[in-house]
Amino acid sequence: MSNAKFDSEGGQLMLQSSWRFSRQFQDSKANAEAAYAAWIKKHPSALTSFERMMDGAKGKKVVVFLDYDGTLSPIVSDPDKAFMSDSMRSAVNQVAHHFTTCIISGRRRDKVSSFVKLKNLYYVGSHGMDISIPSEAVKNSSVRRSEADQQGNEVIMFQPAAEFLPIMKKLLLVLREKIRTIKGSVIEDNKFCLSVHYRHVDEEDQDALWQLVEATVGGYSGLCITNGKMVYEIRPNINWNKGHALEYVLETLGFGSSSDVFPMYLGDDTTDEDAFKVLRKRGQGLPILVSSNPKETKASFSLRNPSEVQSFLLCLSKWKKSNSSM
Ligand SMILES: [Mg+2]
Questions:
Q1: Which H or E run contains 7?
Q2: Residue 186 needs a FRET pair 20 to 30 A away by CA distance; which of 9, 55, 162, 210 works?
Q3: Distance between CA atoms of 44 and 87, rounded to whole angstroms?
Q4: How far, in Å, from the CA of 231 to the mean position of ligand 1?
Q5: Taking a C-beta distance cutoff of 8 angstroms, is the pair 183, 201 a contact?
Q6: CA of 19 to the centre of ligand 1 (A)
Q7: Phi-psi region of 319 (alpha: psi -120 to 50; beta: other; left: phi over 0)
Q8: How far is the CA of 59 from the centre of ligand 1 (A)?
Q9: If you measure from the C-alpha of residue 66 to the centroid of ligand 1, how many angstroms do you get, rounded to a whole number?
Q10: Taking 90 as the threshold, does the pLDDT of residue 306 lie above it?
Q11: CA 243–ligand 1 middle distance (angstroms)
């Protein structure tokens, strides 16, 4: 009898607790949805606002800048496996067929190019510090003479942190050895940038990893560390970022002070904010943040995830086809 009573009371307690948990879960979900709804009013969806947004592009030369990780590919646990889907590749290919298109990534240039696997666009690596533009696209006579790249193509190369390359190579070896003791840490060589990923590092070890990284990098002058999505980025501390790279590319293509250009930039991380700021300053084009969470940004519009980016790119190609006289 007493057991039956216990079971009944225990069952009721469990029911109450599970009801409370479910209620709390629903409340927090509702709060998150309300916060997103308030945020998206300030940064409307680039999909639902498409026609209105593109009104400003009519009669202008659209140039598309795309970040890679988190924009064209989902963020994955192994940075070497951030592959792009075939359908996304096809969408980017169509856009690059219609518009000048440039990928600006924190990755090393050859690596992001090996992920994207398209030849009809330009690649900028190392957070804007490794720029390569085919010579035939260059419209600005003041840029340096062209040179042959590894494939023998004539290109304009611009590497504003070239002098740091020996330091970065040395630091890569030292840092790789130092952080070996921290289980789950991964260091990625992005040429002018070293990325220390801590996504798989136990929470209690993350502080020790940070101390090691900070102390090791502190031994080299002229470098800085920024924090991205579960990654420390070590870079030359020069006044050059993705925003400068965007300006450099536009200038090289002959759009330095042109009012006839309509640049758009899609990116998901803190380093992309520099490019958003440049577009704001120029008063031209579209800064679009890829995020499913509300966050502080200089972007005017938003897309939730790479899947929405793909839809947006398809809309862009369709828009060009229906405005083919432009
Ligand atoms: Mg990104």
A1: helix 2-42
A2: 162
A3: 25
A4: 11
A5: yes
A6: 39
A7: alpha
A8: 30
A9: 9
A10: yes
A11: 14
CA 138 – ligand 1 centroid, Å: 27
User: How far is it, in rounded angstroms, from Cα 64 to Cα 259?
Assistant: 16
Nearest to residue 170, comparing CAs of 225, 221, 231, 240? 221
Rounded to the nearest angstrom, the distance between the alpha carbon of 215 and the centre of ligand 1 is: 26
CA 236 – ligand 1 centroid, Å: 19
Token pair 């007493």 is at which residue? 2
Write down the pLDDT at residue 144.
63
The CA 67 to ligand 1 mean position distance, Å, reads 6
Which is it for the CA torsion 275, 239, 233, 191, positive or negative?
positive
Q: Under DSSP, is residue 153 helix (H, G, I), strand (E, B) or coil? A: coil
Average pLDDT of the chain, as a whole number: 90
How close is the Cα of 122 to the center of ligand 1, in Å?
Answer: 17
The CA distance from 315 to 48, in Å, is 11
Distance between CA 84 and CA 72 in Å, rounded? 6
The token pair at 233 is 């980025």
Gap from CA of 98 to ligand 1 centroid (Å): 24
Regarding predicted confidence, which is higher, 125 or 157? Answer: 125
CA 133–ligand 1 middle distance (angstroms): 21
**Ligand 1 center to 91 CA (angstroms):** 18
The structure's pTM equals 0.87
Cα dihedral 207→213→215→219 (10° resolution): -170
Q: How far apart are CA 325 and CA 310, in angstroms?
A: 24
Give 234-262 pLDDT, tens digit per residue. Answer: 999 999 999 999 999 999 998 887 789 99
pLDDT in tens, 74-101: 988 888 889 999 999 999 999 999 999 9
- The contacts of residue 65 (CB under 8 Å, 6+ apart) are 101, 102, 103, 104, 246, 249, 263, 264, 265, 266, 275
How far is ligand 1, taken at its centre, from the CA of residue 178, in Å?
27
